[in-house]
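Data card: per-record layout.
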Amino acid sequence: MSTADQTSLWDLVVQPANKLFIAADLEAFPTELPSGMPIDYELDNGRLVFIMAPPGDIHGAAQSLIATYLTMHGEFKGHGKVRTEVGIVLWRNPDRVVGADVAFIAKKSLPLKRSDEGYLETIPELVVEIRSKNDTLPYVRRKVEHYLKAGVEVVWVVDPTTKTVTVHAAAGDPVTRGASDALELPNIIPGFSLPVADVFRE
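The structure for this 202-residue chain is written out next.
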């Protein structure tokens, strides 16, 4: 990671003065600022990450459509479980807690395991990250790296600006899919096919 990328990343992170935070600490944090602005958090190896700007409508539309496809063609057919806006504990000591836009946990990984804080401890087979205006590219890359390190098999990074989906897998280089392509999950949901053009349908 370049020095510029490191600066962009750590601009998002508040380093505690005396100790690292753990997942249980997140329960004590406020869910909104005094002005009423909603605020979410992640833990980057014990360091607190603030996620302040709520996602826009295009983000919400893509998230809803992907979750619906996964529910109809995955969960309802007995292949696993779908979750949206879910906190996932990737590892502990120091704690890495991330918020995934969409996750799919395959049947082989069920039943689900939840932490005492209510976060998902079962590592999903698929995670979907939809870029928002406040998501820096270095931090998205870092999250993808950490998802794969924790055992996620496939990560989709959805970019509403370019209307593309970049597919990251544990093996091989990332592949970017455009409007004429489809997203498939042969090792997770047999027969699943989601046209990329549908992801960005308004």
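Known properties of this structure: The chain has a mean pLDDT of 87. Residues 54-199 form a domain with the tt1808, chain A fold (CATH 3.90.1570.10).

See the next section for split statistics.
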